[in-house]
Design brief:
single chain; 9 strands; alpha+beta; 3-stranded antiparallel beta sheet
């Protein structure tokens, strides 16, 4: 009799119900990994977002299996007409330089800031639109673009509000710079940006960086400002309802091959080493790789050498 555990079938050799799968069935005894949605509200010219890079990278590397990440372009600077940040003493582009340098000195993520004095950025919307256009094709490449844009503007003093700079950056990540930047100038690209602005508003975002983690019950935590790894790990634990296990960081050689450029502070944070240990550590870990060690604004950084 079907579904009777005492009924044994001489043909199948089964006592009870064989199920729909028959004799062979793949099973997975691993418990499903709990995940949360992480919204990262940011902007290409947000200095504190640049300062957060070392911590954010380590957090994602260690806890990424629990995260569905969505980066939101927040729209920090539409333009200078009528703009004033009285609280921070910013009323014109040149006022930003000193503020950026303070953030750089405090975080030790190099920030030149001179771009605001000799070639000021008129709006953060152009690089944000490029980010959104690339994201439609490939979200991972969009993240790479955002990193390269930040390197360009903060460390290497380039105006990422200009088409020619954006084209160069996009070409550098293997895409058609002219085509992408042209598409970013179309109304549809601004529509994508407006959708992000609306999402940020619905999440209660008022400043950058803001990270919001939400679980499947639509309950979450909002963390404003650049915080420590411990802050983000504790927030993740609260939202998950259980303590997540941190994955080990990849070896420095693998990380540099992936990232292409790492500043000393990023290496220190990733591997929990002191500033004066970085050179020795890098020499040991990067032995055999064609890397280059350079200095910028008093900070070491490492890149992979490429063939001309």
């Amino acid at each position: 009799m079907k579904n009777n555990p005492m009924a044994c079938d001489l043909t199948t050799g089964i006592c009870g119900d064989a199920g729909e799968s028959g004799v062979f069935e793949l099973v997975d005894l691993n418990a499903p990994v709990k995940k949360v949605d992480l919204y990262y509200a940011t902007d290409p010219i947000c200095s504190h977002c640049w300062a957060l890079e070392p911590v954010m990278r380590k957090f994602v590397k260690q806890y990424g299996k629990h995260l569905n990440i969505r980066t939101i372009a927040g729209g920090l600077l539409a333009g200078w007409d009528g703009f004033a940040d009285v609280k921070n003493g910013i009323g014109k582009p040149s006022d930003v330089a000193g503020h950026w340098r303070e953030v750089g000195a405090h975080s030790r993520m190099p920030i030149d800031g001179s771009v605001w004095e000799h070639d000021p950025i008129m709006s953060s919307y152009p690089p944000s639109r490029v980010f959104k256009v690339i994201g439609q094709q490939d979200e991972k490449l969009a993240a790479v673009f955002l990193r390269r844009a930040r390197e360009a503007v903060f460390a290497f003093d380039r105006n990422i509000g200009k088409d020619e700079v954006l084209i160069d950056i996009v070409n550098g990540i293997g895409l058609n710079g002219e085509g992408i930047v042209a598409k970013a100038g179309e109304p549809a690209a601004q529509d994508l940006l407006e959708q992000d602005f609306a999402l940020a508003a619905s999440l209660g975002v008022r400043g950058f960086p803001t990270i919001i983690m939400v679980n499947e019950d639509k309950k979450g935590v909002k963390i404003v400002g650049a915080q420590t790894l411990e802050h983000y790990a504790a927030a993740l634990e609260q939202v998950l309802g259980e303590k997540p296990t941190a994955e080990p960081m990849p070896a420095l050689a693998s990380l540099l091959q992936e990232e292409k450029l790492l500043f000393s502070k990023e290496i220190e944070t990733a591997y929990d080493i002191d500033r004066d240990e970085v050179q020795t550590y890098a020499e040991q870990q990067l032995a055999g790789l064609p890397y280059k060690k350079q200095e910028l604004l008093g900070e070491l950084y490492y890149t992979l050498e490429t063939a001309d």
